């Protein structure tokens, strides 16, 4: 595995590679969800490169930038075991040579769902992802559906900025209790993670009600909240039922392809999860 730390390293490495180059951007603290993206890249592309960079521009003041898990040695062990072709580990100065300046881009998806709670977030995400695209020049990029809005935002950015990159969505990976894998899960003990799985089960209760023919957004959200009432330590930030393409909220009846998504706080840790649903009405 080639370790790249500078833009010039990446340019020289990329210049020697013909064929599909798959890219998995990460902030480290790798888990089985990340590894599933890498394996998908390896199954589709001649070469696969992973970036490890904790991007400061997607953290607001008071968020967990300084506390974010850092497990570089273990991450590199995972990547070596998988036989990844290259890993890019840049410094802040390499990514943002002029401070936090960079791409000035927004699209209509920024201020919905997650963007309402974290208006800075997608500005920071698109800054760093576009910068990484320009450096690595992948043919394919792999994102998980756990971060469904991020996936949609990046897909729109690729189209708007005319990147010649195929975005490949990959299913969320869950633990045996159903909790979606996330680097921030490391903030929770094993027992706390088991308790937090009621978040996923409450979402699955919404899916069950949809399968039974319930189409009232209000009633479906009530079912979700009732499911979480069993866990007093979980506080709901939002529950959304929105068009899966535009992310526009469906305030009354659920129709077409929808994204049911939510953010909650548990023991001070912010968790997100979702599922897609195709309604026949």
**Which homologous superfamily in CATH is the superfamily of the largest domain?**
HUPs
Approximate helicity band: 25-40%
CATH architecture of the largest domain: 3-Layer(aba) Sandwich
From N to C, what is the helix and strand string? EHEHEHEHHHEHEHHHEEE
Which class of the largest domain in CATH terms? Alpha Beta
Oligomer: single chain
Low-confidence stretches: none
Number of domains: 2
- Kindly estimate the percentage of residues that lie in beta strands according to DSSP: 15-25%
Count of runs of 4 or more consecutive helical residues:
10
- Backbone CA Rg: 19 Å
Query: Taking all residues together, what is the mean pLDDT?
Result: 95
Largest sheet: 6 strands, parallel
Separation, N- and C-terminal Cα atoms: 50 Å
The beta-strand count equals: 9
| Main sheet: strand order | 1-4-3-2-5-6
What characteristic shape results from the CA principal axes?
A: globular
| CATH fold assignment of the largest domain | Rossmann fold
Structural class: alpha/beta
Describe this structure in words.
The chain folds into 2 domains: 2-170, HUPs (Rossmann fold); 183-278, Pantoate--beta-alanine Ligase, Chain: A,domain 2 (2-Layer Sandwich). It has 10 helices and 9 strands. The protein has helices spanning 7-15, 32-44, 72-82, 92-95, 114-117, 121-136, 148-160, 190-196, 198-211, 217-228; strands at residues 2-4, 21-26, 47-52, 86-88, 140-144, 166-170, 234-243, 257-266, 269-278. Helix 7 (148-160) links the parallel strand 5 and strand 6. The longest helix has 16 residues, at 121-136. The chain is globular and about 55 Å long. The N and C termini lie far apart (50 Å).
């Amino acid at each position: 595995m080639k370790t790249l730390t500078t833009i010039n390293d990446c340019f020289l490495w990329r210049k020697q590679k013909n064929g599909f180059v798959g890219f998995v951007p990460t902030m480290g603290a790798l888990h089985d969800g990340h590894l599933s993206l890498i394996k998908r890249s390896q199954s589709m592309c001649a070469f696969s490169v992973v970036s490890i960079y904790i991007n400061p521009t997607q953290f607001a003041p008071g968020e967990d930038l300084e506390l974010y898990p850092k497990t570089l040695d273990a991450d590199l062990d995972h990547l070596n075991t998988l036989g990844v072709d290259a890993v890019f580990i840049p410094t802040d100065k390499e990514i943002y040579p002029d401070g936090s300046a960079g791409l000035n881009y927004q699209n209509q998806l920024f201020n919905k769902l997650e963007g309402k709670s974290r208006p800075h977030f997608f500005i920071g995400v698109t800054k760093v992802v576009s910068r990484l695209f320009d450096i690595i020049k992948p043919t394919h990029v792999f994102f998980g559906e756990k971060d469904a809005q991020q996936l949609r935002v990046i897909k729109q950015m690729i189209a708007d900025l005319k990147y010649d990159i195929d975005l490949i969505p990959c299913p969320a990976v869950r633990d045996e209790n159903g909790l979606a894998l996330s680097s921030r899960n490391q903030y929770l003990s094993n027992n706390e993670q088991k308790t937090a799985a009621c978040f996923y089960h409450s979402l699955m209760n919404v899916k069950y009600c949809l399968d039974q023919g319930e189409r009232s957004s209000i009633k479906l959200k009530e079912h979700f909240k009732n499911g979480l009432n069993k866990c007093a330590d979980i506080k709901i930030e939002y529950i959304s039922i929105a068009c899966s393409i535009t992310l526009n909220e469906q305030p009354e009846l659920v129709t077409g392809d929808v994204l049911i998504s939510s953010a909650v706080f548990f023991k001070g840790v912010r968790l997100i999860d979702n599922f897609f649903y195709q309604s026949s009405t």
